[in-house]
Amino acid sequence: MTSPGDDRLVPGPGDALVIVDVQGDFVTGTLAVPGAADVIAPLNRVAAAFAARGLPVIATRDWHPDDHVSFHDQGGPWPPHCVAGTPGAESAAGLELPAGTTIVEKAGTAAMDAYSAFQGTGLAGDLRAGGIHRLVVGGLATDYCVLETVTDAVAAGFDVVVLADAVRAVDVEPGDGDRALEAMRRAGARIASAGDVAA
Fold first, then answer.
1. Whole-number Cα distances in Å, 1 to 11, 14, 30
2. Which one of 24, 136, 137, 175 is least enclosed by Cβ atoms within 10 Å?
3. What pLDDT digit, counting tens, does each position of 92-135 carry?
4. Active site residue 165
5. Rounded distance, CA 175 to CA 183, Å?
6. 21 a catalytic residue
């Protein structure tokens, strides 16, 4: 994926793009992540580059029941968000998913939360069956669903590249996003930029 002699990322066979939870409620809705809209343009560019090469693009999304365990009313830490079938659960305005994008829904059981795209979805097996060994990841939020998805991907044996300019953090505590990126790097992910991805 990296051309000899430079730091560009040239998508090729065995690579897939994973866009994590770029949904309406996380961009402008009930659980808006600061600066979330800024991930859309770089992800659109990278998605177009993958699609132009016929490479897989995967978009994950929270797809919660309206009594999900993570919601305040159920004693959870978050306001209601990304309730299945509502506008806030759909892809954020402006996100341009290529034709054929695979949608992976997660956290659809009321009593169980799932930050990672690999939790309860069968995604790892599907990727292996498709010959995928390297994932390029961006989306929301750095310190929750991106972090958990990336660390699970590394643990499952995938090479992972995180696009630092195409993620944004909740930052419940100041610096959570930076600490999450460092945790991903320590886990074995490479930290890069959407601008490094060859068009």
1. 5, 9, 37
2. 175
3. 999 999 999 999 999 999 999 999 999 999 999 999 999 999 99
4. no
5. 12
6. yes
Burial class from Cβ neighbours inside 10 Å (0-12, 13-18, 19+) for residue 93 reads exposed
Smallest Cα–Cα separation from 108: which of 76, 91, 81, 84?
A: 84
Terminal C-alpha separation, the chain? 13
What is the percent of the chain with per-residue pLDDT over 90, rounded to a whole number?
94
Name the 3-class secondary structure at 55. coil
Which residue's structure tokens are 């305005």?
93
Residue 82 a catalytic site member = no
Contact 32, 99 (CB under 8 A): no
The whole-angstrom separation of Cα 145 and Cα 96 is: 20
Short-list 149, 133, 140, 158, CA closest to 43? 140
Residue 121, classified by CB atoms within 10 Å of its CB into exposed (0-12), middle (13-18) or buried (19+), is middle
- Of 106, 113, 143, 171, the active-site residue reads 106
Cα 156 to Cα 28, 82, 132, 143, 163, distances in angstroms: 33, 27, 12, 20, 19
Order of strands, edge to edge, in the sheet holding 57-62? Answer: 102-106, 57-62, 15-20, 134-140, 159-168, 190-192
pLDDT at 6: 46
Cβ neighbours of residue 171 closer than 8 Å, sequence gap 6 or more: 34, 143, 177
